[in-house]
Amino acid sequence: MKRPILAAVLVLVGLGLGATLLRDQVPVSGAQTNPAATTAAEAGAKLQNELNTIDIVRRYEPGLVYISTEQEVVQQNPMGWMFGPGNQTQVQQGVGSGFFVNAQGDILTNYHVVAGESGQGSAPRIRIRVMNSDQSVPARVIGRAPQYDLALIRPEGLEARFIKPIPLGDSDTLRAGQKAIAMGAPFGLDFSVTEGIVSSTARQIPIGFSNTGTGEGITQKAIQTDAAINPGNSGGPLLDSTGRVIGINTQILSPAGAATGIGQSAGVGFAIPINAARNLLPRLQQANGGEVRAPRLGISAGLIVQGQGQAVAVGLSALTTEGKRQLGLPETGLVVGQVQPNSPAARAGLRGGNKQQAFPGGEVLLGGDVITAVNGKPVDALEDLQAALIDKQPGNSVTLHVVRGRQARDVKVTLDNSSFQ
């Protein structure tokens, strides 16, 4: 006998966005102020901030790198056999930014700056130029991490006196409101500087590309800033008030770009936290031009819904409370659909679902585990799990808080080399 489809209780929960404008009258104090003293204090604070910015630019802008690429791309003409000419080869050019991270001359940048058009022709030719030098030198890719949108390149024939590493900071200690200085080459205007603040320290956005070099990568924690970032800033450093690199500028939110196709700064830019890049550096340096991949536990999501013409894995927060209660599921968490054999998850004893339950708009696999936290941090989707693993290396362990039926327990999972292949 078939189970009845749950039509009423398993309803996807939508988020209604609204805004309330408060127009309370501001009370006016009767205390007198000294306009001259206020103006002098404001001028002093402004001058102090300007001097700090000028000093940071003077000391660390020489560590900024201007990157240019050229790639021969084959343009296909499907009617060439009849009207001619046939396929043509064109040279596609690109620009971006990067910065020195060590005395050997290694340069961190974005993967998309040096990747070129995958499968469209020869590999891009990369050249770099440093400040106070009119000459450019070739550079080669040492390691690529498409899912993180990161790459490490190394110049060839660059004089040692031009290598000026910029010190790396600690992005885990960032606070919203801190000063942020972006360096790069917006629209090809090399060695440009903009200033703003850190708008958010934990904005979850898709960063990077899939293993094939196309499509979206992993949803990661990113730094949001209002320091102006534009095309060409990609790969450049985001610095704090001490001159330490706190992030790598990677993308912008551009409402105008959606209409025109040309992205422009709208005061919402994103940077990859420097701690994520720092943890990847050893693997990038040892990649020998190859690819560094994000670690995997060996599981797939068990709650799938239909969204915009494709199936999407979601967390339990997408379902109604009543539906989860009837199915014996926790309020939030990642439903484990399948566990790959011989994977870290399988060796740790995680179990996938074995009973499929359909509902309007999707389906869920029941009978397996639900991961509700990783190392004490809540998990509600596959992206949360990936974000928790992003800085891990072979041999590292994570502790999962798992619910199976009505029983909760902690499970230790150790990553191995298979997790990174």
Automatic annotation (TrEMBL):
- Return one GO MF term: serine-type endopeptidase activity
Is the keyword Lipoprotein in the record? Answer: no
Q: Which InterPro entries match?
A: Chloro_Bact_Ser_Proteases (IPR051201), PDZ (IPR001478), PDZ_sf (IPR036034), Peptidase_S1_PA (IPR009003), Peptidase_S1_PA_chymotrypsin (IPR043504), Peptidase_S1C (IPR001940)
Q: Which GO terms describe its biological process?
A: proteolysis
Among Gene3D superfamilies, the record links this protein to:
2.30.42.10, Trypsin-like serine proteases
Which residue ranges does the record assign to the PDZ domain?
Answer: 300-406
UniProt keywords (A-Z) are: Hydrolase, Protease
* Superkingdom in the source lineage: Bacteria
Family in the record: Belongs to the peptidase S1C family.
From the Swiss-Prot or TrEMBL record, give the protein name: Peptidase S1 and S6, chymotrypsin/Hap
Q: Which species expresses this protein natively?
A: Deinococcus phoenicis
